[in-house]
Amino acid sequence: MNFQLLFADHARTPVRYALTGAKGGFSRTLLAQTRLMPNLVPAVLCDLDVPGLRALCLELGFSETQLVECISAQAVAAAAEDAIVLVADVALLDTARYDILVEATGNPAIGHACAVTALNAKRHVAMVSKEVDSVAGIALSRLAAKQGVVYTTADGDQPANLIGWVSWTRTLGLEIVAAGKSSEYDLVFDPATGMITQLDETFAAPAMASLLTLGDDIPATLAARRAALNGRKTSATADYCEMSVVGTNTELVTDVELMHYPIARTAELADVYALREDGGILGSTGVIDVFNVLRLPEEASFAGGVFVVVRTHDSPTWELLAQKGHVVSRNRRYACLYLPYHFMGVETPITLLNAVLHNRASGSATPSQCVVLAGRATSAITAGTVLNMGGHHHDVTGVQAVLLPRADAPDDVAPLYLAAHATAARDIAAEALITLDDLKGYSPVLRAAWEAGLQPA
């Protein structure tokens, strides 16, 4: 990326964006950053809670006179050039004047429809809703190419950060053994108290005190660390969704469908993500995975960052790098290169400027459906049950997210977020993969996009 050229263009060329899900946490970070960038313009903001959206904009320092609430297409079209249009209905976006849509509803069917409308109008799309991308990302990318515009992941979000890091690594000719990210919140262990804090929860885990180093048997240590958590869940549906986006953009696949989720310290990653014959946990190379950060209170957070583990290729080079503090495995066969940050909407303007001013995407120009974000029933589901989607991580009721290499997935497997708010068309056995025939009441347009993405370009 040529930052000098990018910001030179930005200094004289306004970039106007539309934002859906505009009152959400990600959106706040983007709007706050926008306040520091005069030529990045939030032309139209859409959220079901328009009064709350107005209050957020005022809190962030946007001028009250600029905020114009509209309930009709005519009103949107008539808004002043410098107005920030606030709407509740996504259908009103089409008449607004903007260059790029930032789609952040998190709703698979609505987000897909918004993206299609924008692309058909030859507007760029930055997809923050991983739920949409996991089902329809391939089809949307192809539509964008046909329309001569950009469909892209968003910098600051973990998928885009990791996709870029994988691309950087490959450009250097390094062989990727594993690539991944940390889970959302660190496990912070205090040896003085034997307690672990994760976000706003603190619980006893005294056994962790003797497990702070990997020892000679890495899988055994990782299993003991897991046991020390006393059954606490440390995976999230959102992780699977994000890694499915990474997979389609990098052609990396999972080693196991639930991913390994090792509890590991940053300095251990090159040893943990080694092949089994070298003492690690991997059955193959070229995989994507998520780990849970274990750290002490005084140690820096991984901050939702991303990593790649590569094979070392020249012993003196990597010995020198190890001496400089880089993470190299004990046997010196693997190294971990990582970015310990996750800036959300603070960094997303880079994507918006790159797409509009340079016609460049943050992700792959030709993604492929090499992985499938699917779901297994956690218990028996009876016909007629509505599979609601909700919660912070957009879980689907009664369904465990799994990430499968497409080669291992049945032809009739349903993408997880086609099931969101759909109804079970028949009884589904516990542990069964959800299939297309198991569902009814979903968006047929979204299914068509999924099936189109499975076909060769």
Automatic annotation (TrEMBL):
<feature type="domain" description="Oxidoreductase DRL-like catalytic">
    <location>
        <begin position="156"/>
        <end position="348"/>
    </location>
</feature>
<dbReference type="InterPro" id="IPR048423">
    <property type="entry name" value="DRL_cat"/>
</dbReference>
<protein>
    <submittedName>
        <fullName>Homoserine dehydrogenase</fullName>
    </submittedName>
</protein>
<dbReference type="Pfam" id="PF21135">
    <property type="entry name" value="DRL_cat"/>
</dbReference>
<dbReference type="InterPro" id="IPR036291">
    <property type="entry name" value="NAD(P)-bd_dom_sf"/>
</dbReference>
